[in-house]
Amino acid sequence: MPLRTRSVQKLDGGSFDVLIVGGGINGAVSAAVLAGRGASVALVDRGDFGAFTSQESSNLVWGGFKYLESYEFFLVRKLCVSRNRLIKAYPDNIKPVPFLAALDHGSPFPPWLAIVGSTAYWVIGSFKTRYPRLLSAEKIKAEEPIIDVSGVRGGIEYYDAYLKDNDSRFVFSFIRSAMDVGATAANYVELIAAERIDGGWRARLRDIDQDREFECTARMIVNAAGPFIDGLNEQLGLRTKHRVVYSKGIHLIVKRLTPNERVLAFFDDTQRLFYVIPMGRRSVIGTTDTRVDTPYTEVNDEDREFLLDQINARLDLRKPLTTDDIIADRTGVRPLVVETDGDDMRDVDWTKLSRKHEIEVDHARKVISIFGGKLTDCLNVGEEVADAVEELGVPLEEDTQNWYGEPAKATRQEFYRQARLMKLDDLRHKPDVEPLSDRLWRRYGRRAFEMLDEIRANPEMGKDIMKNADYLRVELHVAAGTEMITKLEDFMRRRSKISQVISDDVIAESAGVREVAEILFGDQADARLEEYFGAIPPAIAGA
User: Rounded to whole angstroms, how far apart are CA atoms 149 and 264?
Assistant: First the structure.
């Protein structure tokens, strides 16, 4: 029986300590810490895990350098500590990376002030990263020839960190961790209604994929609905001190612009920072900051032209980037927290709002609401939610902090020992592609041992399944059984980042996509292909 089917059956008529609504980073980390500390946990999301806001990040794990400008030293300290913990806990997934900021005459800060700020940032971060450097224009050109330094006064280099894989997969790692210790989680399940009963909640849920309704009960609800938090609180009958407002950000993905593994930082014409971020063989350009009134966004021509104009003006390219160079784009909203008087938002400059989070606890109705937040802050969010759950009367086991992080060093060493013995990395010879052993361990951890066994038994399992995509056949078989992939987009966009690094046209011409669908969905393959493409492309239909 498919994993998702089993999960929905457990939800149907189930009784839980906590029902978490929302499977983004806030909901996922809450499920992991609560299940890891002994609570009975149910988590539902009306879309896929790690979708919507959590799939549109910059893939950066950083302490909020820019928040020093607004003197939010406590927030920066908190984020730096969380960043340091994540780097230590996920050494193969989260890597320190240098940020090289080139400062021209339009930048709001001269280089000397920037190095003072970056040094303070290094100190606030407990010296856990490499120390910052002050760079001349000549030094910047020598280290990054792609940068046009004709108007550059100088720059700095400082360190933060980034995700080697994609943000949604990192979110799913918390979901998987929660399920491994007993949590029940299901994607494409929405909360239709909830009513108070016997001091707790009866929730009416709908399986969107199968169009079926059912109920479960819980002692309390955690509202982790991200940009939809206010609507859910209204549905639950809550009045809160905080609300969220929306800032739209976009990224453009193009071929790799520089061979160096570093982030390039610039101030755009509005004096807002934007970046060129490494993503394997691609570069991600972004982000923007536009006030919007809805969480539903899309990348429009004006967005594309703005970012292309900004980056073309700051790089020394053989020919300027155009829309033809865009492989994919991504857009989402930042749910920024504001205080209210119960109904109306304060008159506030949204562009100056930080990505802080706030957690509200309604003792009378037993609802915990998570406002705002960001990927870097996820461990803090999880721990604060656990404190709130105990405050509402559910005792938890001692926090041994085994609910997050990669497997132990000895387990990692054993995997690499086995991978070397079977010469795993000799199975492919692609330029500029990381070794298979690194990729499988980073993505799957302990489940990678199962993949080694499958490849030993059947060498076909060690071959790429799609042209231009670094995905082995064995990965699909393991994902089909363990990653609750319900739609083809779940795999293409979130469990992998294929649709972010390969254009739609190339995907539509890849005969391997049919085998992907057949492994994931069996006799539902054609229906899922039609759902994803609209109509099955000829190259795939004839495969």
Answer: 13
pLDDT in the model for residue 162: 97
Q: CATH assignment of 55-163+245-335, given 3.40.50.11690, 3.40.50.10420, 3.30.9.10, 3.20.20.450?
A: 3.30.9.10
Q: Is residue 511 a contact partner of residue 540, using CB atoms and an 8 Å limit?
A: yes
Nearest CA-CA partner of 513 in 489, 490, 540, 476: 540
Q: At what angle do helices 512-521 and 525-533 cross, to 10 degrees?
A: 120
Bond preceding residue 53 cis, omega within 30 of 0: no
The helix or strand, by DSSP H or E, that contains position 499, with its residue range, turns out to be helix 498-501
Domain boundaries, the chain: 3-50+167-241+344-391, 55-163+245-335, 409-541
Rounded distance between C-alpha atoms, residue 254 and residue 163, angstroms: 18
- pLDDT tens, 193-249? 999 999 999 999 999 999 999 999 999 999 999 999 999 999 999 999 999 999 999
DSSP H helices in 55-133: 73-89, 111-124
Percent of the chain as helix, strand, coil, to the nearest 5: 40, 25, 35
pTM of the model: 0.96
Transcribe 209-259 into DSSP letters.
TTTEEEEEEEEEEEE--GGGHHHHHHHTT---SEEEEEEEEEEEEEE-S-S
Q: What is the largest CA-CA distance in the chain?
A: 71
Mind listing the pLDDT tens digit for each residue in 471-528?
A: 999 999 999 999 999 999 999 999 999 999 999 999 999 989 999 999 999 999 999 9
Q: Under a CB-based contact definition with an 8 Å cutoff, are residues 193 and 204 in contact?
A: yes
- Do 162 and 95 contact (CB within 8 A), yes or no? yes
CB 201 within 8 A of CB 54: no
Q: Residue 249 carries which side chain, given as an amino acid letter?
A: G
Task: Give the closest residue to 55 by CA, choosing from 440, 404, 490.
Answer: 490
Coil, helix or strand for 273? strand
Confirm if 125 and 83 have CB atoms less than 8 A apart.
yes
The tokens 């910047």 sit on which residue? 140
Q: Which two tokens stand for residue 308?
A: 């292309």
* Cα-only R_g, the chain: 23
- Looking at residue 348, its amino acid is V
What confidence score (pLDDT) does residue 340 get?
A: 81
CA distances from 148 to 1, 139, 154, 402 (A): 57, 12, 12, 47
pLDDT at 18 exceeding the cut of 50: yes
> What kind of architecture, by CATH, is found in domain 3-50+167-241+344-391?
3-Layer(bba) Sandwich (3.50)
Would you say 381 and 355 are in contact if contact means Cβ atoms under 8 Å apart? Answer: no
